[in-house]
Amino acid sequence: MSDTAINPDPRDAQLGRSRVVDNPELEAFYGELGQHNAAAFWKRANAIEPWEPESRYSPTVWRYDEMRDLCLRAIDLVRPEDAGRRVVVLLNDSEAGRANSAVCGWLFSGLQAMKAGEITPAHNHTASAQRFIMEGAGAYTVVDGHEIELGGNDYVLTPNGCWHDHGVSVSGKTCIWQDGLDIPLMNSLETNFYAVYPEPTQTRAFPANDLPLSYGSVAMKPEGIPAWDKPYSPVMVYRWEATRDALWNLAKVSDGSPFDGHIMRYSNPLTGGWALQTMGAHMQMLKPGLHTKAHRHTGNVVYNVAEGEGYSVIGGKRIDWKQHDIFCVPAWMWHEHVNTGSGEAFLFSFNDFPVMEALGVKIEQALDTNSGHQPAAL
Ligand SMILES: [Fe+2]
Ligand SMILES: [Fe+2]
Question: How far is the CA of 349 from the centre of ligand 2 (A)?
Fold first, then answer.
């Protein structure tokens, strides 16, 4: 919220905004209201009803070469059996980020590191989770008895309430992946439950990879098996190779979005909607030399550079990035992306757009270069 006492907004002088001039009689009245757990609305109206969203979060970047070292140190310092989950939490560089354990807005994120032969004990929570695999080999997760193998740049779901445990096979290599959850949202809604499974790991109840193999084709819907009746995507894992091919194919026939280059959502193939109910995710491809137009929208976005190098300008701040750097775009901040590399750049991202859409408050605006809004000094 802007401090109207320090920076009065000239728009607040107009009819329709709070513009009461205080006097001793009013001050006494405010004191009296305070003794009754009450307050004068006009004293706070302009602050709690800003002209437009004012994010409490900052554009923040986490460099993978720094974060990777910290994740590897955590492996030596704590066992996953004791930590529950050995995760380095990404905290937004803001008071709100540190207070809410938020990477940005309603979103939580962390880097989870596991070495060969380790497991994360089975549990579930109301918060939905998703994972983006950054490095390693032999990682797997088990979601409600379905085992799913995980490879680099794969996008994986753990829908809310599902039992899940993770591990890296004995013959695998140390794995690091990014977790994305809606923990700040669940805590704000006061709906966050957590439970521990009676055994360290779940019994596999289905053939390995049965869900992605059954539902992983957008064009072919399986028949002759029990109908999927859950409110989230049955695919569970979206493979990197298929994701990249889908973007390459799209680029053969489309110029893509002026704001995002070629961009595709990880969707529930049965509905075309988001894969999870509270969080969405995209992969986008920026062709060499592409400099997107600036836009802004409600909702928060956390990016992970799947491949390539470039920079983004977010709320006037330039953030240079390369593979597996992570950065965020807070709500209603102007942003644009630039690919400075010689090949395509791929940006994975996850967001809280499904919440914004469900509440009817997903609002987007393109930069009007004639309006006086300028995204940044480059
Ligand atoms: Fe979990
Ligand atoms: Fe955007």
Answer: 10
* Identity of the residue numbered 16: G
Q: What is d(CA 88, CA 240) in angstroms, rounded to the nearest whole number?
A: 24
Q: How far is the CA of 355 from the centre of ligand 1 (A)?
A: 20
Tokens coding 222: 């399986």
Q: How far is the CA of 61 from the centre of ligand 2 (A)?
A: 16
- Would you report the helix, strand and coil content of the chain in percent, each value rounded to 5? 20, 35, 45
- The DSSP code sequence of 138-199 is EEEEEETTEEEEE-TT-EEEE-TT--EEEEEEEEEEEEEEEEEE-HHHHHHHT---EEE-SS
Between the CA of residue 375 and those of 131, 335, 363, 372, what are the distances in Å? 31, 7, 18, 10
pTM flag (> 0.90): yes
The pLDDT tens digits for 206-256 are: 999 999 999 988 788 899 999 999 999 999 999 999 999 999 999 999 999
pLDDT tens-digit map of 104-129: 999 999 999 999 999 999 999 999 99
Structure token pair of residue 321? 């990035």
User: What's the Rg (C-alpha) of the chain?
Assistant: 23
Assign 2 a pLDDT band (cuts: 50, 70, 90): very low
- Residues 48, 4: contact at Cβ < 8 Å? no
CA of 40 to the centre of ligand 1 (A): 43
- How far is the centre of ligand 1, averaged over its atoms, from the C-alpha of 183 (Å)? 11
Compute the distance from residue 85 Cα to the ligand 1 centre, in Å: 8
Q: Do residues 293 and 337 make contact, with C-beta atoms less than 8 angstroms apart?
A: no
Say how far apart CA 88 and CA 109 lie, in whole Å: 9
Structure token digits, residue 266: 């990880």
Distance 204 CA to ligand 1 centre (A): 18
Give me the CATH code for the 61-366 domain, please: 2.60.120.10
Q: What is the pLDDT of residue 5?
A: 56
Q: What is the pLDDT of residue 292?
A: 98
Instruction: Check if the beta carbon of residue 182 is closer than 8 Å to that of residue 106.
Output: yes
Domain residue ranges in the chain: 10-48, 61-366
